[in-house]
Hints:
The complex is a heterodimer. By secondary structure, chain A is mainly alpha-helical. Chain A contains 17 helices and 4 strands.
Amino acid sequence: MWLVFLKELKELVRDRKTLFFMIALPILVFPLIIGVVAYFSTKAVQEAETKVLNFAVVGEQYAPSLVNQMKDSDNFNQVSLPDEDDVTTSIRSGLTDFVLVIPDNYGDDVLATGQITLKLYLNDAGLNLVQHRLQAMVNNIAKHNQQLAFVQLGLDEDQQTALLEPIVIDKIDVADKRENWGEKIGGFVPYLIFMLCLQGAMIPATDLGAGEKERGTLETLLISPIARYKLVMGKFFTIALAGVTSALVTVSSMAIWGIVLSQGMAIQLVAEFMSAISGIDFALIFLMLIPVVAIFASLLLCLSIYARSFKEAQGYMTPLVMLVIVPVIMAMLPGVELKGGWAWVPLTNVALAIKELIKGTMDYGELIAIFGSTAIIATALISFCVYWFNKEKVLFR
Amino acid sequence: MIEISQLAKKFVVENPKKLSEQERLDPRLKGKFFHSVCDVSFRCSGGEVLGLLGPNGAGKTTTLRMLSTALKPDAGSITINGVDVLTQPVAARKKIGFLSGNTGLYGRLTGRENMAYFGQLHGMEKQDILRRIDALSELLGLHSYLDRRCESYSTGMKQKTAIARSVIHEPEVVILDEPTTGLDIMAAQTVMDFIRQMKVQGVGVIFSTHHLDEVAQLCDRVAVINEGRTAFNDTLAAFCARAPESLSRAFLSTLERGGQ
Lengths: 397, 260
């Protein structure tokens, strides 16, 4: 068995494509995702905040002070509307970024005018921050008018506060920052790790089963005096090692890049998140991925050995990616927690456990169910693999 | 000596609707089964070369796969120097050297690594493997490229290396499935020289081929398979006697006569 394993391993490390998916991709994927998302989102927000907005006003005569404030700002530029009845066209044509319609009851005396509604026409698809920027300007005037009304009514400061917000709910969040972050990103991390593990195991699995059939080496191997189960186990361990390596590289990459980004680039959120997760948590995440990878490896080997060719194997494996997504998505559903029956559902339980570890709320007793269920499934699948490796109609389709 | 008697092997036809008109008319198609080999018998002693002939689809490759233990027969028997292939497949595999239709080499391993791997699979000691690699490299002229990866080999280089790999464990019987197909004259000559060498060493050689000139040059015995049955099984001289003017005529005459 180890003879087969070592030979397969030797071939594996000589295959650049496999090495790329197994090592290079997990190393690069985290900084790429974090870096690209951070760069583009920051750039988009900056552009939206600093862009000079072309605007037009209908009913300017009712609110000269507001319009003058906007005109005085460097970030706003007033344009004339060719047709005041067709504000939509002016926005769609790009003439204006927004049109503000001021009603004729606009005034500074709130007690006399009541609530005033300004109509804001804009194309709100995509990030624009138009309302946010306009609101900041309107808020100043609104506050000023509010104060005038309070003075008129003769209210002291406490009365003003009570009038503005008669009942307040004071939320005291007992969750620490780690738990909050864990809840937010804890569902996404297992998805990413599972996919990378599957990807890391997929290429060698295709090569070791269908690839051998296609190249004609399988027949030669089958007639060598070695028990079939040893052949299967040798191949299984190679695929599993590729998956585990991919997992190890993924988790290490996540940890290392987290530290690099949090220290080197001073991103506060990443720093807080990384400082909250201990080395033991990372080690546990890695350990739980071993039976997961065993499930992937045996499933992939079964599919690969059944396929007639490399192409056919890839055709069978693509739906497997979708199949793996399901238990991970289940782990993201509200109400699904790592306890009771869910702790025994393979893959879902590991996804939930990774989330709990990230949140720092892991019940370590559930590890028995997690390792137990995934080990049972993995053993059953490996046994099925050995059974298939003895079937002529599978080997010589 | 390798002796096979009344071998039979059938396969389930996965999708009968996809069969061509000619395949549907094949008498071996019975219901959902295709009886690839129905009744094949022949023998080959040590130091003998047996040429296995037959038209495409006759059942030659299935027969050779059964001999090599890759497929299990539905009926019949195969013995190799007294070892029953059906009941002792692992013991039988140690006595067989098999070269399939393609070379079956691992492209990312060197020729030396390929040979050593199969030597280890056969349970050989490291020293014996090194000795055999040296001897076979000398015999087949592999030295200049033995430490290069097989994916960079020419067809001839691959075929020579595959031959060396198939006999690394010094088998008692060598089975070759169309070993010269697709080879240039030089490479084909190497294969033929190798078969002669095996014969001299007392190894029984069974090889399937469509090249009757190779049969004339190498074979002591001939077996012809047609539609899954042995149509001829005797010496080369007896085969030639069927049509003295040419082996092609003898072959066609055998097919026309069926199993008579």
